[in-house]
Amino acid sequence: MYDTLILENDKGEGVEIPIQYARDCYQLVREVESLVQPYPNGEEGSGSIPALDPSPSEETENNNNNNSPLRIDGLLCDKTTLELVKQYTLSYPNLTTDLPQPLLCPLHVLAQPHEMELLRRAERSAVHVQLLDIASYLKFDPLVQLTSAYISIRINEIARHAENIMVGAEQVRHFLQMVNEWTEEEMKCLEKEMAYALEVDPNAF
User: Fold this and answer.
1) 18 forms bridges with which residues in the sheet?
2) Mean pLDDT of the region 10-23
3) Is the dihedral of CA 72, 77, 82, 84 positive or negative?
């Protein structure tokens, strides 16, 4: 039906993944392929997730090409994220699965060296949150488990090594790429409240 999966972001940048790897790793692809069945006359649908909305000529060309790729487009991520997803997918079946929750030992003891390096590269490239988002969308369970565990550990490390709770909160927000929705006035009030709490009880935080 398809020989290739194309993962493409909203900028039109993409990577190609052999369809068998995609079937083995992404539950989303297995679900879609169970729905996108050939028509009685042998024609196929557009093969796009979400709907590619091709022009009539493009649709006709896709329908007549039995080896046309399956396409997942419009993904909100950088190309680096797609490259990391592809890299990990092509490691199949050499993937860590069924991580215990909570972790009973350091992640690097359970995960393989190539997996830890992929996670560190994702953080260095500031795409670790995107990696979790795309893995979740694809229902790529081993990568979801791995990235979730790594992010959870890093949040704990950042919080423990922060100078104080306010600094820690800001560093965690930065790590998670979250916008601080509090106004400047609200932040000043919070700082005063935190300072007062520490005066009352130095071990409050």
Assistant:
1) 4
2) 97
3) negative
Give CA separation, 89 vs 135, 142, 146, in Å. 10, 10, 13
Q: How far apart are CA 96 and CA 88, in angstroms?
A: 11
Question: Which of helix, strand or coil describes residue 30?
Answer: helix
In sequence order, the 6+-apart residues with CB closer than 8 A to the CB of 101 are none
CA atoms of 106 and 114, how far apart (whole Å): 16
Q: How far apart are the C-alpha atoms of 28 and 131, rounded to whole Å?
A: 16
Structure tokens at 105: 């030992």
Q: Please, is 159 exposed, middle or buried when counting C-beta atoms within 10 Å of its C-beta (0-12, 13-18, 19+)?
A: middle
pLDDT, tens digit (0-9, with 9 covering 90-100), for 114-138: 999 999 999 999 999 999 999 999 9
Distance between CA atoms of residues 65 and 44, nearest Å: 8
Position 55: which residue type? S
Q: What is the pLDDT of residue 196?
A: 80
Distance CA 25, CA 17 (A): 11
More confident residue, 12 or 104: 12
* Average confidence score pLDDT of the chain: 86
Q: What is the pLDDT of residues 106-115, one digit of tens each?
A: 999 999 999 9
Give the pLDDT confidence score for residue 54 in this predicted structure: 36
Helix 79-89 with 141-161: angle, nearest 10 deg? 120
Q: Using CB atoms within 10 A of its CB, is residue 65 exposed (0-12), middle (13-18) or buried (19+)?
A: exposed
